[in-house]
């Protein structure tokens, strides 16, 4: 077969083979970023040509065996595909931070679009109409195509939530996109010297987590009057990360509060139905059927059946507890129930009375205004805002008057034994024990490590 080709051709082919072989044998075997080369031999023309395959940022194994295989595959590989002849059009974006007083119309106009365009957007499909709800601090972006026409609007409500409205086939379509942060467990511990707030702040807890912790233990501990110097707390909570950077905190996973020497432990548990709540290690709910107090405020007048009335100056039983708070402070429903009455009630002023089951009622008086949904017969859930602190009726200043009655008889809301909420059912107990045992182990590991570090820092 070699006789078919001129000697010059044969000589060129042999020389080329030697060069390629030498290059292969001298190549390093480590992974490097490389420019790959392969060669073709045109025996008819007596020429060699070099094919360069540039692959930036790609790491290549340049061992002799691997290079030989790559050379063969690249010679045989077809020509690279042509670029997309119809690439997506580039968009020109304008970004605005929403300030107090801004309206959707003013923002559209500032971006150069008319109210007519705005109406076509908010009357679009999907969630496009949600663009009308704007809040200061959010960011809105407008995208224009090459002809200056509006192509998209994005409203970033926070780091996790963005409303995207895009033009598709002549119609604007809206969709809310949610990013899922990465949650990592973190630990905080503190000892109360002055107040829970200051101790939590020194421990690194933000206000939201501090209020959450108080809410978890609030059915058993009155954080205004029961907390003492030397009380201690430990909390395992979630730190939230986005793109590797911390941006906030999530749920409390477990917590311990030692009040006057008594240990209280709460564990977050999500049952098989997906419902989450806090429970003690034995499965009892941290909740009670009633809140101990319907408002976070100091007591200005205690339950006293022999009290002298401050206005009438006569001995008249004070069948409830008064909480002094600024006008407008929200008042929470102490428990689930129905509105028994709502409106003006003589010296009580604006008052709401709730009925809980067959034998318990709670009364909230002297409100500045009553919640709009507090109509007679309406259902109320524990923690719902039923009204706001005021000074209506026969009073000397703004406060909440709160009464707790059992079978019509007044009881001291701060000392009455409150009924328990439902514990973990027997059918769920095995699953509860399995999950919470891991939580307790994690909690104890955090606590032990913290104590070791504290002791080491003292040495």
Describe the structure.
The chain has helices at residues 7-25, 64-76, 104-110, 115-122, 196-203, 207-217, 426-458; strands spanning 31-42, 47-61, 92-97, 125-126, 139-144, 150-156, 161-168, 171-178, 182-191, 232-242, 245-259, 262-270, 276-279, 298-301, 321-324, 330-332, 337-344, 350-356, 360-370, 379-380, 385-389, 399-406, 409-411. It is α+β, with helices and mostly antiparallel strands and 459 residues long. It has four domains: 2-76, no CATH class; 92-178, Nuclear Transport Factor 2, Chain: A; 181-288 and 421-459, Nuclear Transport Factor 2, Chain: A; 298-411, Glucose Permease (Domain IIA). The strands form four sheets. Strands 14, 15, 16, 17, 18, 19, 20, 21, 22 and 23 form a ten-stranded antiparallel beta sheet that branches. A six-stranded mixed beta sheet has the order 3-5-6-7-8-4, covered by helices on one side. The protein has a five-stranded antiparallel beta sheet with strand order 9-10-11-12-13.
């Amino acid at each position: 077969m070699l006789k078919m080709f001129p000697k010059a051709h044969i000589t060129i082919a042999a020389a080329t083979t030697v060069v390629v072989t030498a290059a292969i044998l001298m190549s390093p075997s480590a992974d490097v970023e490389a420019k790959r080369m392969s060669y073709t031999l045109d025996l008819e023309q007596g020429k060699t040509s070099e094919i360069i395959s540039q692959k930036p940022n790609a790491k290549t194994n340049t061992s002799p065996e691997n290079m030989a295989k790559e050379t063969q595959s690249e010679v045989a590989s077809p020509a690279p595909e042509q670029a997309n002849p119809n690439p997506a059009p580039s968009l020109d974006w304008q970004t605005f931070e929403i300030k107090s007083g801004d309206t959707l119309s003013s923002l559209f106009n500032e971006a150069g679009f008319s109210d007519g365009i705005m109406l076509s957007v908010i009357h679009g499909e999907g969630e496009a109409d949600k663009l009308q709800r704007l809040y200061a601090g959010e960011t809105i972006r407008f995208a224009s195509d090459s002809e200056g026409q509006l192509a998209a609007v994005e409203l970033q409500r926070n780091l996790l939530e963005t409303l995207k409205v895009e033009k598709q086939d002549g119609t604007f379509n809206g969709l809310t996109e949610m990013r899922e942060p990465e949650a990592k467990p973190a630990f905080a511990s503190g000892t109360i010297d002055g107040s829970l707030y200051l101790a939590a702040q020194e421990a690194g807890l933000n206000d939201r987590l501090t209020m959450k912790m108080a809410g978890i233990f609030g059915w058993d501990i009155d954080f205004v009057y029961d907390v003492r110097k030397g009380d201690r707390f430990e909390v395992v909570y979630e730190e939230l990360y986005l793109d590797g950077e911390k941006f906030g905190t999530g749920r409390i996973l477990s917590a311990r509060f030692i009040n006057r020497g008594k240990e209280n432990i709460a564990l977050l548990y999500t049952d098989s139905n997906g419902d989450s709540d806090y429970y003690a290690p034995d499965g009892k709910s941290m909740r009670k059927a009633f809140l101990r107090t319907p408002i976070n405020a100091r007591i200005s007048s205690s339950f006293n059946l022999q009290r002298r009335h401050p206005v009438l100056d006569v001995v008249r039983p004070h069948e409830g507890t008064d909480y002094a708070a600024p006008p407008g402070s929200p008042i929470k429903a102490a428990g689930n129930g129905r509105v028994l009455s709502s409106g003006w009630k003589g010296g009580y002023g604006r008052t709401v009375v709730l009925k809980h089951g067959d034998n318990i009622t709670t009364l909230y008086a002297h409100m500045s205004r009553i919640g709009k949904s507090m109509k007679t017969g309406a259902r109320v859930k524990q923690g719902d805002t039923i009204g706001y602190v005021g000074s209506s009726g026969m009073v000397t200043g703004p406060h909440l008057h709160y009464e707790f009655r059992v079978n019509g008889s007044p009881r001291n809301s701060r000392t009455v034994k409150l009924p328990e909420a439902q514990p973990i059912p027997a059918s769920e107990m095995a699953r509860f024990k399995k999950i919470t045992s891991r939580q307790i182990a994690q909690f104890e590991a955090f606590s032990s490590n913290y104590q070791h570090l504290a002791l080491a820092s003292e040495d």
